[in-house]
Amino acid sequence: MAAVATYVLMRARLDAIDHVEATAERMSKQLVLQLVRISTSTDLPERFPDAGVFDPQYLYGLCARYVNADGDIVKSVCRDMDPTARRWPHWFESAYRWIFGPAREVRRTVKLHKRQYGAVVVAPFAEAEIARAWQAVHGLLGLTALTIVALCLMAYASLVRMLLPAAQIVSGLKRIKQGDLAYRLPAYELVEFQKFSSTINHLAENLEQTNAARRELSTKLLNAHEEERRYLTRELHDEIGQCLAGIRALSVSIAHTAERECPRLVPEAEQISDIVEHMLGLVQNLLTRLRPPELDTLGLSECLRRLVQGWNSRSAGRTSFELDIGGMLDAVPAALSGHLYRLVQESLSNASKHAEATHVQTRITITPDVPTRGVATGRVELVVEDDGIATVSPAEEDYGIGLRGMKDRVTALGGRWSLEGRAPSGLILRVLLPVSDAPVQA
Amino acid sequence: MMISSKIRILLVDDHVIVRHGYRTLLEKLPDIEIAGEAADATEAYACFQDVRPDVVIMDISMPGASGIEAIGHILRRDSNARVLVFTMHQNPAFVIQATRAGALGYITKSSAPDVLIRAVYEVHGGRRVLSPDIAQVVAISKLRGEPVPLGELSPREFEILQLLVGGRTPQEIAQFLHLSPKTVANGHYEIKRKLGVKSDIELVRLALRLQVLDLVIDDVKL
To answer: What would the pLDDT profile of B120-145 be if each residue is shown by its tens digit?
Structure first.
């Protein structure tokens, strides 16, 4: 822009000089012509120099004078510029003057037949020159500025259009970060963005596959765990417990005989009884912790009712526990019934430990899908709601072992989990688990 | 066949060790004899027809047909048959099932052997009987939201409560349960503390309301 301005200024200056020179040239030629006319007596010598030559009409912004051979000014005409044309800024004037210095006058001698009659001197008004320069620069600068603005706008628009995929990629990454691993970025025309997009898609796919594999593994582990507990429960209940009962009967029998025949043995027999009784108690506690054996004989609904009843009787009226069961809950596969039992057990235990609630409502509903090829699938929804003291749901980092274990279990089983605050106070836990008929192998 | 004054028992259990232990114990008693043993429901029914026992001691979870089915089967054959369930299960749902099928008694295997022996006599006399742990569970399930902390009592305390309300003196209870009078007195105090009652009168009134003595099982709401 500065280059353009300089160029325009230079041209304006040269034009101004040209103009002055051309005017001087023209006037001197006209005066020579008049001299010729006087010498041929077609003009009067008194009329020299001719006023028509000094017509102000042709002298805009200039001063012209005629100087005779003795150096006297015979005629002088000036025409200043139109004062309304003084519209340039002050800085421009000082800059112009600084760059180009004062205006130069041009002198042309008026000669005929080797005789010098005088000279025409034309001097420009500096203001007129500046005005012309300003006009040129001003017009050009305006146009240039307009062009630059237009160019900038166009560049901006095309940049925005070109960067649109970047914004899309960023928002896609955000979605992937939030766990939507199935999201895929679209294809782009620009090769760089296309490479970006396909690499990100590839990463997301890898992550999705890894996650699926991990989930499958945790489900297998959990189910194996549950199956192992089931096995231990059966052994404890059906074998160990029974053997202990048998030993106990025998020890009492020994005590009875000893009373008659060898009273010294009675305390020892009774000690055996006590030990066996203690062991039976341990077995009972282990059974409760492992898995109620009734899950397999009486079914999940009955066990849940017992569980809730147990909490009601322990709480002695401080908290009332309620249970609603919807659907054929006992039809769920054995491993899942174990998981559900544990989830309810854990949530009731949590509610009773932390909530200080007066009412804890547990709803468990099974909704079957339309059976296809005899495979029963569906989903189970578990909702545990308390009116306790909590006002906001705890942050995930603050989960205790209970909540963390529950959430891990739900995630591993491919279910959904939410724990929210409830109005006016309390918490609502929602768990949605898929039911599938796939055989569970330990 | 000689007419015997002994109580003749059919022992049904799929666990040989249990059968053996209780056979040894019961046969020590002068007025009891084991008339037969069976390891499953089918065998039990066949044996019942063969030996016509006075009391059937029946486990309910066995391979094949369950003990509940065997009870129904036997009762249909002989409506006077006296069946005492003897099982590991502590769930009141089983008590209801067994009672509906016609069993008179329900004793858990975690009860002291003396509890079974007493129950044999009760059932032989045609009376209903529940082991204390089961009686407690049934009583709790009958609370229907009443805020009584029955679950706080240990099975032993519940048993003492039943006997107290039945009008026995602490000395009698001590003798009956093979406990020292001091243990019974402590139990008595603990029961009142846990149930939040101040006097014995209040305790009896509460116990009567909750029917801890005569638990009618059929109307247990679960």
So the answer is: 999 999 988 888 888 877 777 666 65
User: What CATH number should be reported for the domain holding residue A381?
Assistant: 3.30.565.10
**Could you say which residues from 202 to 241 on chain A have a Cβ atom under 8 Å away from some Cβ of chain B?**
237-239, 241
CB contact (8 A) between residue B88 and residue A250: no
Give residue A206's identity as a one-letter amino acid code. Answer: N
- Separation between Cα atoms, residue B80 and residue B76, nearest integer Å: 9
Of the CA atoms within 13 Å of residue A294, those in its CB half-sphere come to 22
Class of domain B137-219: mainly alpha
**Global confidence as pTM:** 0.58
Using a 10 angstrom Cβ sphere, with 0-12 exposed, 13-18 middle and 19 or more buried, the burial of residue A331 is: middle
One-letter amino acid of A54: F
Q: Any idea what DSSP says for residue B51?
A: H
Residue B155 tokens read as: 């099975």
Q: In the predicted model, is pLDDT for residue A441 greater than 50?
A: no
| One domain, residues A131 and A202 | no
- The continuous run of DSSP H or E covering A368 comes out as strand A359-368
- Asked whether residue A203 falls in the same domain as residue A100, the answer is no
Identity (one letter) of the amino acid at A341? Y
Distance between start and end Cα atoms, chain B: 47
Helix (H, G, I), strand (E, B) or coil at B147: coil
Residues in contact with A373: Cβ distance below 8 Å, sequence separation at least 6, in sequence order: none
What architecture does CATH give domain B7-130?
3-Layer(aba) Sandwich (3.40)
Residue of B nearest to A279 (CA): B110
Which among A96, A129, A149 is the end of a domain? A149
CB-based contact, B31 to chain A, within 8 Å: no
Distance (Å, rounded) from C-alpha A162 to C-alpha B92?
Answer: 74
- Dist CA A75 CA A52 (whole Å): 12
Total domains, chain A: 3
Residue A380, domain extent? 298-435
**Residue A145 shares a structural domain with residue A216:** no
Instruction: Name the burial class of residue A124, with classes exposed (0-12), middle (13-18) and buried (19+) by CB atoms within 10 angstroms of its CB.
Output: buried
In a shared domain, residues A326 and A419? yes
State whether A90 and A190 are in the same domain: no
Residue of B nearest to A319 (CA): B147
CATH code (residue A104)? 3.30.450
Taking the Cβ of residue B22 and every Cβ of chain A, the question of whether any pair is shorter than 8 Å is answered with: yes
In which band, very low, low, confident or very high, does the pLDDT at A415 lie, cut at 50, 70 and 90?
A: confident
For A321, phi then psi, to 5°, come to -105, 135
Hey, where are the domains in chain B?
7-130, 137-219
**Is residue A321 helix, strand or coil?**
strand
Whether ipTM tops 0.85, in short, is no
Site from B16, B28, B195 to mutate, A interface, most A CB atoms within 10 angstroms:
B28
Task: Count CB atoms within 10 A of the CB of residue A182.
Answer: 10
pLDDT at site B219:
42
